[in-house]
Write a structure and sequence with these properties.
It is a single chain. Helices cover 44% and strands 10% of the residues. By secondary structure, it is an alpha/beta fold. The protein has 2 domains: 278 residues, TIM Barrel (Alpha-Beta Barrel), CATH 3.20.20.370; 65 residues. Strands 1, 4, 5, 6 and 7 form a 5-stranded parallel beta sheet that branches. Strands 2-3 form a two-stranded parallel sheet. The protein is globular and about 60 Å long. The N terminus is likely disordered.
Amino acid sequence: MPAVSNAQWPMLQRTIEQTSVPPTPRPSWIARAINKIFPGGLGLLQKGGHFPNGVYILAYHSVVDPDHREPWEMCYRKGETTVAQLRTQLAFMLDHMTPIALSAAPGLWADGGPKMPYFAITFDDGFTNNRVHAHPVIQELGLKPTLFVNADFAARKQWFFRVLSAVLVHGGFSGRLVTLLRQKAPHHRWSDDGKILLNEMKNFYVVDIMEDVITETYWECLGDPDGLNIHLDRDGALHLQRSGWEMGNHTRSHRLLSHQTLPQITAAIEDNAAYWGQQGVPLIDFLAYPVGRAMDVNPAVNAWMQGNPAMHGIFANGGVNFSLRRTEWLRFSFGSLTSPEQLEKAVYAQIQRTLTACHILQEKSPP
């Protein structure tokens, strides 16, 4: 793979995001691509499947029981997975791959790389339903996931702004919300339509202003956001850790790192680690970049990562780990897929996207 400059990073994640695959990914094409890109190949799994050796990392967020939703779960359904979907997806992975804790994944390359397909499981944002609904499934299947946590969420100083905004819009308060947004973030013509507004607040994000406006509006219209019980507190996270879960760094308050300077990024990451250390909940050496697209980081994030060589950084917008890229680990999601055929096709699609991106970058590298 070509050397990556600070300005170019993250090349692989960005290229994967720009890479499409045919409606039906082709295992035969994948086999040829592997042999071309990776001398000696990667090897194929013999345990009832055909997936190349590597580390396949699943990204989850909110896990719900659709028949017994909390009030906030009724309003915010972005990226959610039902209990039944989670169980089916993880059972599929167990049928085809070997589970591994995320913290152990880097060590697979100490002896030349994975000798079989492995999979790891991650959850972002520390939602309370990870303990209520995901944990029983995890225990039942004997897995060891990683939960990426935020200090300000656990300490009830902040709440994920997209959840609060969804509750506000669902409750009929989008008018007040858009009024404050137009006052404090006039650079964008915010829509009066609540559903469009929710997407705009993600796509035209303004660090701090977005969180502050939404929190202010929530207090004004609905009261204390803590009553929603969105995020696990310290005790909830500690319970999961003592039950076998790992905890990873997701920054102090989930602000997008791409909108911050190096000193701000340093504080966001290191303050979060310090908080959890003080709470007796040590974090593994993995940082999940909030939201997790290539556009959600900047050169200052890479500069911090280069200054902290023990830390691994992980995205969440597609791809499979066929090589060790410390600052550019890849994750993907199954969404609502449940049938074996759908899940197999989804895995092949991620494989083909990754290999296509690797081939593109290989062609761009200097001789």
